[in-house]
Design brief:
Elements lengths: L9 H15 L10 E7 H9 L2 H4 L4 E8 L7 H11 L4 E5 L13 H6 L4 E3 L3 H10 L4 E8 L4 H14 L4 E7 L2 H10 L7 E4 L1 H7 L5 H7 L3 E3 L4 H16 L5 E3 L11 H10 E3 L2 E4 L3 E4 L3 E3 L8 H4 L15 H5 L31 H8 L8
Parallel strand pairs: 1-2, 1-7, 3-4, 3-5, 5-6, 7-8, 8-9
Antiparallel strand pairs: 10-13, 11-12
Helix pairs in contact: 1-11, 2-15, 7-12
Bound molecules: iron/sulfur cluster.
InterPro entries: Hyd_form_HypD, HypD_1, HypD_2_sf
Family: Belongs to the HypD family.
Keywords: Iron, Metal-binding
Length: 374
C-alpha cells in the first residue's frame, strides 16, 4: 500500500473485523470476562476514537487507554517549575503548543504568558536554539518533553548548541522512557491486561528488543502497531491470534516504519547527552524508577535545573480529578465525576483533557457521550 487512504479502506476494515469477531469465539477466556488490551500510546487512543474503532469491536474486547501521552502524565509540580523559570527576568521560555494549557497548581503556561511572562510556542528544539542565537542577551529555555520519540531531536539540539558554542540556551528536561512504565503497569497487583498494542513512534527509535521482557517474564503478547485504522485492527487481530494460540511474543505490524533494531544514530545521540534518572514522578502513576532521563554532567551548562532555582515540589492533583484512575484503566474517562462538566477541553482540570492524545479529550471529542445525562 502506498497512500494513506488505503490504510482506511472500509472493505478491508470490515474483513478484519469479521476475522476479529470470529477469533474471539475461539478464545475460551473471553467468555468469562472481556480481554483487556492496552494501547500504550496516546496516538493510538486518538485514532481509536477518531475512527470509532472501539464501537466496532466485539464486546469480548475491552480497550484500556495507557499512559503514552507525555503531556497527560506530566505532574503539576513540573508545570509549576516551568512557570517559575519562565517568570524569571530575562528569560524566553519555549515549549510545544500542547504543553501550554496543562494546569499547574495555580496556573498554566498560557496563563503565565497572559500575565506577562515571555513564553513562546516552537515547533522544534532547533527553533528554540535559533531564538537563543538571535537573542544573545536573553536566557532561552526549551521545555523538553516526550518519550524516546522526541528525545533524539532534543539531544541533537544540545550537541549542536555545544558545537556552535551557544552559551545562553538551556533545556528543562522532562523526557520520559516507556519501558519502565510498562513494567510498572505489569507489576501492579491489580494488573489484568491480556496484551499490548505497542507504541509505533517510540519503537521507530528503540526497535523491538527492549520489549522482550514482556513476553519472557510476564507472558503477555505485544504487537507494535501503526496509527491508521487498518494498522490498529490488524495489530489487534495479530494479538488475538497469539492469545488464542497461548503464545506471548513481540511482533511488529508497523514494519513499514519500525526497524527491528531501531534507529542507531538517534540512540547514539540520546546516550551521548542523557542518562537515566533514579526516578521520575508521573501524574497518576506516582514515582517510577528509571522512567526519565536527565542531562549528563558533560552537558551540565545547558541544564535548566542546575542553572535556575525551581520549587521542585510534588503537588497532588485536585481532589475531584481522577486522571490517575483513568491512566491505570480503573475507570473510563466519562466515569470521572467532573468529565464534561468542570473539566472540558476549553477548561481542563486534568491533563488527560488537554492533549488531543489524552483519553478524556478523545472521549469528549469523539465518544458521543451525553454529558448532561452522566
Ligand atoms: S475528566 Fe478531567 S479530571 Fe477527570 S480524569 Fe479526565 S482529565 Fe482528569
Amino acid at each position: 500500500m502506498k497512500f494513506v487512504d488505503e490504510f482506511r479502506d472500509p472493505d478491508m476494515a470490515k474483513s478484519l473485523l469479521d476475522k476479529i469477531n470470529q477469533i474471539v469465539k475461539e478464545i475460551p477466556r473471553c467468555q468469562q470476562r472481556p480481554l483487556q488490551i492496552m494501547e500504550v500510546c496516546g496516538g493510538h487512543t486518538h485514532s481509536i476514537f477518531r475512527y470509532g474503532l472501539e464501537q466496532l469491536l466485539p464486546k469480548e474486547i475491552e480497550l484500556v487507554h495507557g499512559p503514552g501521552c507525555p503531556v497527560c502524565v506530566l505532574p503539576m509540580g513540573r508545570v509549576d517549575d516551568c512557570i517559575a523559570i519562565a517568570e524569571q527576568p530575562n528569560v524566553i521560555f519555549t515549549t510545544f503548543g500542547d504543553a501550554m494549557r496543562v494546569p499547574g497548581s495555580k496556573k498554566s503556561l498560557l496563563q503565565a504568558k497572559a500575565g506577562g511572562a515571555d513564553i513562546r510556542m516552537v515547533y522544534s528544539p532547533m527553533d528554540a536554539l535559533q531564538l537563543a542565537k538571535k537573542n544573545p542577551d536573553k536566557q532561552v529555555v526549551f521545555f523538553g518533553l516526550g518519550f524516546e520519540t522526541t528525545m533524539p531531536s532534543t539531544a541533537l539540539t544540545l550537541l549542536q548548541a555545544k558545537k556552535e558554542g551557544v552559551s545562553n540556551f538551556y533545556l528543562f528536561c522532562n523526557h520520559i522512557t516507556i519501558i519502565p512504565t510498562i513494567k510498572a503497569i505489569l507489576d501492579s497487583p491489580d494488573m489484568t491486561i491480556d496484551g499490548f498494542l505497542g507504541p509505533g513512534h517510540v519503537s521507530m527509535i528503540i526497535g523491538q528488543k527492549p520489549y522482550e521482557f514482556i513476553s519472557r517474564h510476564y507472558q503477555r503478547p505485544l504487537v507494535i502497531a501503526g496509527f491508521e485504522p487498518l494498522d490498529i485492527l490488524q495489530s489487534l487481530y495479530m494479538l488475538l491470534i497469539q492469545i488464542r494460540d497461548e503464545r506471548a511474543e513481540i511482533e511488529n505490524q508497523y514494519t513499514r516504519l519500525v526497524p527491528e533494531s531501531g534507529n542507531r544514530q538517534a540512540l547514539q545521540a540520546v546516550s551521548e547527552v542523557f542518562e537515566l534518572r533514579e526516578f521520575f514522578e508521573w501524574r497518576g502513576l506516582g514515582s517510577i524508577d528509571h522512567s526519565g532521563v536527565q542531562i549528563r554532567q558533560s552537558f551540565a551548562q545547558y541544564d535548566a535545573e542546575r542553572h535556575f532555582i525551581v520549587p521542585n515540589l510534588t503537588i497532588a492533583d485536585p481532589k475531584a480529578c481522577q486522571c490517575g484512575e483513568v491512566l491505570k484503566g480503573a475507570i473510563k474517562p466519562w466515569q470521572c465525576k467532573v468529565f464534561g462538566k468542570e473539566c472540558t477541553p476549553e477548561t481542563p482540570l486534568g491533563a488527560l483533557m488537554v492533549s488531543t492524545e489524552g483519553s478524556c479529550s478523545a472521549y469528549y471529542a469523539y465518544g458521543k457521550i451525553d454529558v448532561d445525562n452522566l
